[in-house]
Amino acid sequence: MITIEKTLDLPDTYPLERIGSLDKLLFFDIETTGFSALTSRLYLIGCTYFSCGQWQLIQWFADSEKAEPELLHRFFQFLKGFQTVIHFNGDGFDIPYLTKRCQALSLPYDFSQVESFDIYKKIRPFRRILGLDSLKQKAIEGFLGIRREDRFSGGQLIEVYQDYLSTHEDDLFRLLVLHNEDDLKGMPGILPVLNYPDFFLQDFSAFSSELQKQDGPGSSPGSLILSCQGEFTIPVPFHVSDSCFPGLSLSGEKTRLTAAIPLYSGTLRHFFADYKDYYYLIYEDTAIHKSVGEYVDRSARRQATASTCYTKREGCFLPQFEPLFTPELKKEKKDRISYVEYDCGLLADLSCANRYIHHLISHFQ
């Protein structure tokens, strides 16, 4: 087994104290001869960590087929000095792979003593909002404006490693370890994407709203423009709209999140759940409780059903895509979208405004 250690000059791209104590964070990446831990082997583990005021790199390289157990032993012994491992999709591949290789080699190691921080899983809920075609590291780099060319694919590197085992040529060795080093150096470049989970999950500190009137004929009251100010700064602006609900959109730039929400003006219905306790009044087009309805002429009433057990309200209404504020109002009983009566005081309370803006964020996820 060969161990490589060196000092790195890495850019400061994200406040890592949001994740944990800097000296207890360990970035890692692995190289294997295949995807299955049952039919392939581990040949390289690389780590970066902060120590003595500088970023350090350490790599363990299996220079023979028999070196894999020692490589795993060295890595897990080193891991004892850290509290959190940071990786990209390591929960999906790297960690299960290493755990299974330890089991296959009867080594008593796992990741139970550390926290796992998976960049991939942190950003996955916001893929639609950010318009990411995929969640591959290349796609995230492209979103952030990073241009980095991989000289070799994973499959090509497997062939390079097989050639190295036969020849032990220094050029092949350098190629393998430099590829892993480049991947680790590239990880700080995508860390700014973590500002998006921070941004979306925060409680916003200030809100402002205005009504944007709709031009043209009709009774539509237009849209509510809700602007929120937060603590966290996003590196790249975004804009997302809902094709199923025209006019609804969410956009963000720097520390500000803005939502455009079409309002509805007209008549909506509030449906009662216990419809068996109500009569439907045919001529008034409304439902009343049987304790009162029993005094209404029988010819003017009938047993309410789930779809006729309602009262009606006229006004201006704010949409909600899951039950949030009550009483919720609908056009029809079966509708998924409901509404709440809107006035300027509805979102004046900071907690209510945060509830609604996070409701919209969840809708777009």
From TrEMBL:
GO molecular function: nucleic acid binding
Domain YprB ribonuclease H-like: 26-186
Pfam family, one: RNase_H_2
InterPro entries assigned to the protein according to its UniProt record, in alphabetical order: RNaseH-like_sf, RNaseH_sf, YprB_RNase_H-like_dom
Designated name of the protein: Ribonuclease H-like domain-containing protein
